[in-house]
Write a structure and sequence with these properties.
The protein has 223 residues and is α/β, with parallel strands linked by helices. It is 41% helix and 20% strand.
Length: 223
């Protein structure tokens, strides 16, 4: 099968988008004022059978930006001490330059034209990522400026539950609540969940699309 029509190639699966799974831990809910404290990024790959899987994960503890708000309730919830020197935290700019480098390379290797953020309740993570990129005045972001894949919505459709821990367990993915609310742990579980849904859809016969379905928009255009 030629590259032109091969549905088992990543660049053809999501309209040329390269999916990048992200989770953030923050010091509140306001992406404009509250600190980004931790971020993990999982890159994905697809084998020659069209099965999606995890490639590698990047993980950074982040120093609060100057003037950032730190909500006590948020810190109590995620257990992060922003001022603990043992965190090995780096600046937002340092973290995102490394993330950009890795994402752009993986995106290029997959021959995709842009990356798209995959996250659980994706608007939250996308908002904090976008604000951090803007604060650092970083240009040529690989990420789509507004489109995302939200695993909460996908899990609600495919599994019947929108909570990450419950959806993972129902999908047969082990989930340890004691490890939750760590960006590294949550990102990799979210990545496993996303891959499960995509691969399950394929296994059930939903991908690749049947030729008549693919031709339907053209047929309508002639009406």
């Amino acid at each position: 099968m030629s590259d032109i029509c091969d549905a088992n190639i990543l660049k053809h699966r999501f309209r040329g988008y390269f999916p990048v799974v992200i989770d953030v831990e923050t010091a509140g809910f306001n992406s404009q004022t509250d600190a980004l404290l931790e971020i993990a990024v999982t890159l994905l790959k697809m084998d020659n059978q069209g099965v999606l899987g995890i490639d590698k994960t990047l993980h950074f503890h982040i120093e609060p930006f100057e003037g950032a708000n730190l909500e006590p309730e948020a810190l109590a919830f995620n257990g992060i001490d922003p001022h603990n020197p043992l965190r090995g935290a780096v600046t937002e700019k340092t973290a995102f330059l490394e993330i950009f480098k890795a994402v752009k390379k993986a995106q290029k290797d997959a021959q995709c034209h842009r990356s798209i953020i995959v996250a659980h309740n994706a608007a939250f993570d996308h908002g904090f990522v976008s604000q951090a990129i803007a604060r650092c005045d970083l240009k040529r972001s690989p990420f789509h400026p507004f489109a995302t894949f939200d695993t909460a919505s996908l899990a609600g459709l495919a599994i019947g539950h929108t909570v990450l821990a419950k959806a993972c367990i129902m999908a047969g993915i082990p989930f340890d609540n004691k490890e939750a609310h760590s960006a590294l742990y949550d990102t990799e579980r979210t990545a496993e969940l996303f891959c499960y849904i995509v691969n399950r859809w394929k296994a059930l016969g939903g991908w690749p699309l049947l030729a008549p379905m693919a031709a339907e928009p053209e047929a309508h255009a002639k009406d």
